[in-house]
Design a protein that fits this description.
By secondary structure, the chain is of the alpha/beta class. It has two domains: 98 residues, no CATH class; 116 residues. It contains 15 helices and four strands. Strands 1-2-3-4 form a four-stranded mixed beta sheet. Helix 3 packs antiparallel against helix 4 and helix 9 crosses helix 11. It is globular, with a radius of gyration of 19 Å. The chain starts with a helix and ends in a 37-residue tail after the last helix. The relative contact order is 0.13.
Length: 269
């Protein structure tokens, strides 16, 4: 029979555990290199499971990256992917953006900073505006589209999906995203988080100002749910809106005053 104290224990903070895991490998390679390699290798692993056209060149790149690490170090990378997955399962958030800042990489490398997630949620609320108008647009075509010309860690898009879910709308069925960034690290961060949250998206490595494009990353949701066809099909009649149901509130940590009430979303796996 489980101990009463175990049942009352707050859940682990997987995002903080991810930070510690990266710090644990930083003694030899540096936090920046570990973080950049982690998001790239994880993005390649996800992409290679669904995007057969890009598999060969990405697998070649993956093998180049893993050569930097000893076997015991490489064993930590799947653990970090598991922590990221659990952090996103626990709470919809810009986990990689928070991790980047917690590691203080924004102070050491070109002053690159990512928008705070609460600010992104506020902007997402303003962008969505009236729920009735959003539902009317979805009913007309079956979905809405969003474009992010400077994706960063993907926080703006994650917040948009979050707010659609708060309104009871299944973003996994009714949102498609095109996200662009010139920095490959940001492309990998966005792609990885979109993939784990099952956001249908095309993440483009390119320059939004010069309209140059260097690579494209298609999330599993985009490929498996047939979004190439959905985006081309004509609008023909009304489309029903898929909603999300209420879920049980998650356990709280000691630093939280009360559990945030959130509708349920499909689990990551």
């Amino acid at each position: 029979m489980p101990d009463v104290k175990d049942r009352a224990r707050p859940p682990p903070d997987h995002q903080k555990a991810l930070v510690k895991a990266i710090e644990g490998l930083g003694y030899r390679h540096g936090h920046w290199q570990i973080f950049a390699d982690f998001v790239e290798m994880a993005a390649i692993v996800v992409s290679n499971a669904v995007d057969l056209g890009s598999r060969e060149k990405r697998e070649e790149r993956y093998l180049q990256v893993v050569k930097r690490y000893k076997p015991d170090e490489l064993a930590k990378f799947p653990e970090m992917l598991g922590l990221l997955t659990m952090a996103l399962e626990e709470e919809t958030d810009d986990v990689l953006g928070r991790t980047f800042h917690d590691l203080e990489l924004h102070n050491k490398w070109s002053g690159q900073c990512f928008s705070p997630y609460p600010l992104c949620r506020m902007m997402a609320k303003m962008t969505i505006g009236d729920k009735g108008d959003l539902e009317a647009r979805i009913t007309e075509r079956g979905f809405v589209t969003a474009q992010e010309p400077a994706s960063g860690s993907g926080a703006m898009i994650i917040a948009l999906a979050h707010e659609m879910r708060e309104l009871g709308i299944n973003y996994q069925q009714h949102l498609h995203v095109t996200a662009i960034d010139v920095d490959p690290k940001c492309v990998h961060m966005s792609y990885l988080q979109f993939s784990l949250l099952h956001i249908p998206a095309v993440v483009v490595q390119g320059n939004s100002l010069s309209v140059e494009e260097f690579d494209r990353w298609y999330t599993p949701a985009h490929i498996l749910d047939g979004w190439d066809w959905k985006l081309r099909r004509p609008s023909d009649g009304e489309h029903p809106i898929q909603t999300v149901a209420e879920s049980e509130p998650r356990p709280t940590r000691p630093d939280e005053k009360e559990p945030p009430a959130q509708p349920s979303q499909l689990t990551l796996f």
